[in-house]
């Protein structure tokens, strides 16, 4: 057997290392600059990429038109440009966080809403699932979770460049956030949850035509079934959280959108579609608080739902529309159930 068969071609390895070296130089420059300068650079780059160059302009505008149907074209352009600014600023924050944020300084950079409820759940000797989305600086949220003394494991696709992948995962692991590859981690996840560990997941990733389809901003979106199965299969308390920028660089608020417990009496989300609809709705609600911080640049709506899923979603949308109309027309001082 050829011992070199599994090694990448020399040219690819060299190109990967060259890209990694460039990244390290960029990170070193960012770390040498004050955050105020990084903020100014992010603002200029946001205007350049989101405005003058219009990178992925059509995709971003299509997504924003769907999510913010009442916004004018000018308002959507403002949101798109602000999104790019947040993305560039996120890179600078990741570079500065290990040096700036630690156990004696974290209150300068982060406030946690519903801290008592969140900590009470995370302290339980049971498996836990924490769901977030591509919103603001979610990497900082994972960083803070470990800093607070709650180590977690995150499932993510490995980057194509192995050097960059190792570098990024080193950052994530500084405070106890361990990475599991998207493929081949079944046994590791089973061991983690069976031992009462915490699994963190992104709940807004497209998952192909055979996934669980739910409405996201009113349009069918495929969603990984595994996210809900981890909760239901292990009776794991599940939290939906968001890390939202509330000021300048490294100024965040971590918010608990909602949480559920499959062992609670009357638990209403006992199926994969029901639970997926619940956490997707919570993510949608959090995104609308600061839509410019969501990653509208990624393709959330891909593929076509099968007829059965499309029928279910159409019926659900019709029912919700009727309920909303009933609430709107109900006489003052009454409810739809009166």
TrEMBL record:
One of its GO terms (biological process) is glycolipid biosynthetic process. It is found in: Cell inner membrane. It comes from the Bacteria. Keywords: Acyltransferase, Cell inner membrane, Cell membrane, Membrane, Transferase. It holds the Pfam family Lip_A_acyltrans. Residues 307-338 are annotated as: Disordered. It is an enzyme of class 2 (transferase). One of its GO terms (molecular function) is acyltransferase activity. GO terms for cellular component: plasma membrane. Its main location: membrane. InterPro entries: LipA_acyltrans. Residues 314-338 have a biased composition (Low complexity). The keyword Membrane applies. This is Lipid A biosynthesis lauroyl acyltransferase.
